[in-house]
Write a structure and sequence with these properties.
mainly alpha; globular; binds manganese (II) ion
């Protein structure tokens, strides 16, 4: 991934079929090659005539969204968000995956949710509650507190000054081919491919200031 404009669609960190049988090859291929690629292309087209922002990182564009010119805010929110959210989502999956978080992430989770299973249930409920298209997230605030939130469309926690730890894409394109309209079944399958080694590292990284 380029640090700044022109942005590129980075290859998946695994093969399109690597998450089978939990997430199917065709869904991964369309999701990465078509959906994410479209956001990358749109983002570059939007930024083309704004050279003053060509040195900003993807995260920086989103973190300082409300400082951008008004006419850029919605297109950047949607398209830089679409790029960031997808890359982050793809980077936190693996198969086979470690099924539980490492220290200190697991103790943070236990402190807030009581147990790892209780956390999974809370995350599932949040993901189910998203009406229409969006994401469920585990985030950390500037004080190091974990929280589950949901966002609509391609909004990102970065624009809320929250650090993303884990996200789940619940747009129908993420699961329709294999799970049809059954989001709950998709969530159950996705639980098998969360890369908790990577997510645990996200938990331990310092709060970013882009
Ligand atoms: Mn998606």
């Amino acid at each position: 991934m380029n640090e700044h404009y022109p942005f590129v669609n980075p290859p998946l960190p695994y093969g399109y079929n690597a998450l089978e049988p939990f997430i199917d090859e065709k869904t991964m291929e369309l999701h990465h090659n078509r959906h994410l690629q479209t956001y990358v292309d749109n983002l570059n087209r939007i930024l083309k005539n704004y050279p003053e922002y060509h040195t900003l990182s993807l995260e920086g564009l989103l973190f300082y969204l409300d400082s951008l010119p008004e006419e850029l805010q919605t297109p950047i929110k949607n398209n830089a968000g679409g790029v960031y959210n997808h890359i982050f989502f793809f980077s936190n999956m693996k198969n086979p995956a470690t099924q539980t978080p490492a220290l200190p992430c697991n103790s943070y989770i236990n402190t807030v949710y009581g147990s790892f299973d209780a956390f999974l249930n809370a995350f599932r409920a949040a993901a189910i509650s998203v009406f229409g298209s969006g994401y469920a997230w585990l985030v950390m605030d500037v004080f190091g507190r974990l929280k589950i939130i949901t966002t609509a469309n391609q909004d990102t926690p970065l624009s809320l000054r929250l650090q993303p730890i884990l996200n789940l894409d619940v747009w129908e394109h993420a699961y329709y081919l294999k799970h049809y309209n059954k989001r709950d079944a998709y969530i159950t399958d996705w639980f098998h491919v969360i890369d908790w080694d990577k997510v645990s590292r996200n938990c331990s990284s310092p709060f970013p200031l882009y």
